[in-house]
Amino acid sequence: MSELVCYCFGYTSDDIEQDVIQNGKSTIFERIMNEKKAGGCQCAEKNPKGR
What we know:
Blueprint (H helix, E strand, L loop, with lengths): L3 E3 L4 E2 H11 L4 H10 L5 H4 L5
Protein name: BFD-like [2Fe-2S] binding domain
InterPro entries: BFD-like_2Fe2S-bd_dom, BFD-like_2Fe2S-bd_dom_sf
């Protein structure tokens, strides 16, 4: 199983690798930032590291 990178939205390192293969770059960071701006980020609560 690949490492969970984003606890808020459930992205793993494998998701990021596949995103790069499909798009030539990772669009996941962009999606996370858009969700964060919309108030959908809960890193402090969901990530065991609190960030």
